[in-house]
Each structure stands twice: as C-alpha cells, then as structure tokens.
C-alpha cells in the first residue's frame, strides 16, 4: 500500500520548474557627500573688568607737640609821665591861625567879625552877593511863569540850552540877569519869565544870603 501511494504521488507530481538566470548589473557606488564643516569655535569668554581698588587713606595721626616753655617778656622800664600841659587861656580850634579869635570859623580871615559870613567883606552890610557854592541850600521855586515860545522861535524851530546868571535876593526875588548862552528869538521871553518868578531864599550857615545863581534852561519845541 505504501508503495502504491508513493507511485501515485510520483505520477501525479508536476515536472520541476526551470530556474531563470537573473542578470545583475553592478553600478559604481556614488561617493558619499562631504561631511559638513565643523562648527565655529565658541567665542572666547571676555574677562571680567576689574576695577582697581582705591587706596584707603588712613587718618593722619596728630601728635600733640610738647609744651615749649615761653620766654618771659623783658620787664619794661617805668616811663615817667610828662608834665600836664598848661591850660590855654582861650579855646583853640584845629586849623586856626596865629592871631585868630576864639569862636572864629575855620577858613575865616584875621580881623574878621564874629558871626560874619564866609566870603563876606569886613565892614559889609550883609547885602553883598556871594557866588553860589558848597554849604548853601538850593533855591526852591515858589511861583512864577515858564518861558513862552515866541512866534519867530516857533517858525525857526528853535530849541536847546539857554544859560542865564541872576542874583537871587534874600527876599527870593530874581534880579540883575545876564545871558551867558543865548538862543535866537527867546532871550527876552526867558528874561521876562525869570524876573516874574519867586524863590525860597538861599541860606548859608542858617542865614539867608544873596547869591549869584546860574539858571540852565532847556527849551524844547511844544508838541
């Protein structure tokens, strides 16, 4: 039976298959790509800046000096006091002159009168005219008109400074005017105005005096 089964298997088995030849073609292998460049080296680490340390100044040590013995000052010889000056019979004034009188004024003249005015004349009446100067009070205007422009001065457009010298009396009146610096067409108008004005008298050393006073009159065109 076994043999019979083997015979049947062999008779029914398909013929063996022929193996086909397979052509194999060898190709040159491609070269591998070059390796990537190496990464750049890391940046060098910066060194931390070091701040130089400031030297610590040590406090100065104060050494107390040794006491130096002071020399004794030389003893002063006793000075004899001068004898007291004799009292003058009359009171003297600094700046006085030989032959002056007690109670006189500095700057006065020998032979003057007590109570006189500096610059006055011996034997004067007190009405002498003095030049206005230091130590005198300024005259204050009390009343009177201002100079009026004349028609001729307006047409000529006159303006500027006019200087006039006048005597101011002890009553405050204006007298004896003289024109020092004139302006055309305005002389008489200015003189008329000055003669009509009244002033507070000038005083010197507490007393009213007559003075020769300079008026500086500035004239401007009326607007």
Automatic annotation (TrEMBL):
Membrane topology note: Single-pass membrane protein
Matches recorded under Gene3D superfamilies: 3.30.1150.10
Biased segments, Pro residues type: 31-45
Entries under InterPro entries matching the protein: TonB, TonB-dependent_transducer, TonB/TolA_C, TonB_C
GO terms assigned for molecular function: energy transducer activity
Domain TonB C-terminal, chain residue ranges per copy: 134-223
Entry GO terms, CC: outer membrane-bounded periplasmic space; plasma membrane protein complex
Cited PANTHER family: PROTEIN TONB, PROTEIN TONB-RELATED
Example GO biological process: transmembrane transport
Similarity remark: Belongs to the TonB family.
Residue numbers spanned by region Disordered: 12-100
Compositionally biased spans, kind Acidic residues: 77-93
Location of the protein in the cell: Cell inner membrane
UniProt keyword terms in alphabetical order: Cell inner membrane, Cell membrane, Membrane, Protein transport, Transmembrane, Transmembrane helix, Transport
Source species, domain of life: Bacteria
Protein name (record): TonB protein
């Amino acid at each position: 039976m076994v043999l019979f089964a083997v015979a049947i298997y062999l008779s029914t088995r398909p013929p063996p298959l022929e193996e086909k030849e397979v052509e194999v073609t060898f190709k040159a292998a491609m070269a591998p790509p070059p390796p990537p460049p190496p990464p750049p080296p890391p940046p060098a680490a910066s060194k931390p800046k070091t701040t130089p340390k400031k030297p610590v100044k040590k406090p100065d040590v104060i050494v107390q000096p040794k006491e130096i013995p002071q020399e004794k000052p030389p003893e002063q010889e006793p000075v004899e006091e001068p004898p007291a000056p004799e009292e003058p019979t009359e009171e003297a004034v600094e700046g006085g002159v030989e032959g002056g009188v007690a109670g006189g004024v500095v700057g006065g003249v020998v032979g003057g009168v007590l109570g006189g005015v500096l610059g006055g004349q011996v034997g004067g009446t007190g009405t002498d005219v003095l030049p206005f100067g230091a130590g005198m009070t300024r005259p204050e205007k009390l009343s009177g008109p201002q100079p009026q422009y004349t028609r001729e001065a307006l047409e000529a457009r006159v303006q500027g400074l006019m200087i006039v010298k006048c005597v101011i009396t002890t009553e405050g009146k204006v007298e004896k005017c003289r024109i020092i610096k004139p302006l055309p067409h305005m002389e008489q108008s200015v003189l008329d105005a000055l003669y009509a004005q009244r002033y507070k008298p000038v005083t010197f050393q507490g007393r009213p005096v007559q003075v020769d006073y300079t008026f500086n009159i500035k004239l401007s065109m009326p607007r």
